[in-house]
Amino acid sequence: MFPPANEYGHSLFGAQVDAQSGSQDCPIDRLRLVPPVFVPQRFAKLVDLAREPVYRDVVLETTIGGFRSALPLYVSAFGSTEAASVALGISASRQAGRLGIPMVVGENVMPMNSYGRLEEDAGRSLLGRISAYQDEALDGYGGVVIQQSTEDADAEVWNLVYSDPNALPLLQSGRLAFELKVGQGAKPGLGGMTLMSSESAERLADAYLLDPVVGNGQVLRSSSPGSFTAEILRQQIRLMRNNYPRARIWVKLPPARDVSAAAQVAWEAGADAVTIDGAEAGTGWAPRVFLDQVGLPLGECLRRIGQERADSAANCLLVSGRMWEGARVAKCLALGANAAGLGRAALIAVDTDPDNGLANLVECLALELQLLTSALGKYHVEALSPEDVWGPSNN
């Protein structure tokens, strides 16, 4: 019921992709971007520039969850799984800071790898990722988001980060956020899962559910999914506001059938951003039945949220799940997302080139977004809208 144990830490799993077409049978992939003949926004840009505008005139800078970002992209949560190893996590942190885009530090990094106050723990720790980002951070841009699961809450991760002098520069510049993890795309309804050695499992026996059924001397470690009602979510966001008034508040939701209602609750309670993981989202480890058959596709999540979402600039919507090329990002932006998260694509890019892999990927995505947005007769990514996409259901 799980992917092969010997592939763990060497493969990234997720929804199946058609080998011939390279795409999935889901709403985002069935949509097409459709340029118009008449382009009033291009004409307005022409008047402003006193020349014909070109794709390099497209503005990509935007705001993501209260952070100024150079692009409508951010690095999705890398947790404690083996696929997001120490070296990859640190390399991704450095490059994200240099690019001026936000970065989310995923769940269970501290319970698994320590906070990092001891010098020997610095490289693999939560503090190690924060410091790596800060060392390369583009002045005035980006930010670090610390995700919290049930086990992170037990370890008081947010309290430690908020009170740590090492994180003070981020806090003072308004570039620190905390993300409440309500769920994820690869395993909606479940908590995080990863494999570990029996020695590590023994050390963490009091914190996690451990199940030695995988073989090869490894143990399956499972996190609690947490229990939420609408009122619990409201109160949790209010608690975050009261306890950490200088930090931004993000909420991560799974691709659940009531995802739209949950997003409205989070925004009304004061969340700076709501992140949606579609069922296409990748993972370091998950039961195959979840990867293939559980959760809403990202396109359907966007459709449901779009039907009920209030027209407010404060309602920042972020999405993740198979974001590896510009057209998919552009479609999500047109359907109401403010930015897209790079998960598997970022990990693969960093693994390919630890120094510049993520930067190369982002540069390619930025160029594609400029080309696509210009083709649609628009000159800021925030101008993309549902009129720019067509699907088989659009008669």
Write a concise synopsis of the structure shown.
The chain is an alpha/beta fold. The protein has helices spanning 27-30, 40-49, 86-99, 109-113, 126-136, 150-154, 157-163, 168-172, 198-203, 230-243, 259-269, 288-293, 298-308, 326-334, 344-352, 357-375, and strands at 32-33, 62-64, 67-69, 73-78, 103-105, 144-148, 176-181, 193-197, 209-215, 218-222, 248-253, 273-277, 317-320, 339-342, 389-390.
Question: Could you walk me through the main structural features you see in this protein, from its secondary elements to its overall organization?
Answer:
With 395 residues, the protein is an alpha/beta fold. The protein has a domain at 62-190 and 225-367: Alpha-Beta Barrel (TIM Barrel), CATH 3.20.20. The protein has helices spanning 27-30, 40-49, 86-99, 109-113, 126-136, 150-154, 157-163, 168-172, 198-203, 230-243, 259-269, 288-293, 298-308, 326-334, 344-352, 357-375, and strands spanning 32-33, 62-64, 67-69, 73-78, 103-105, 144-148, 176-181, 193-197, 209-215, 218-222, 248-253, 273-277, 317-320, 339-342, 389-390. The longest helix is centred in the last third of the chain and has 19 residues, at 357-375. Mean pLDDT is 85; it is low at 18-24.
Tag the structure with descriptive keywords.
single chain; 395 residues; alpha/beta; TIM Barrel; eight-stranded parallel barrel; three-stranded antiparallel β-sheet
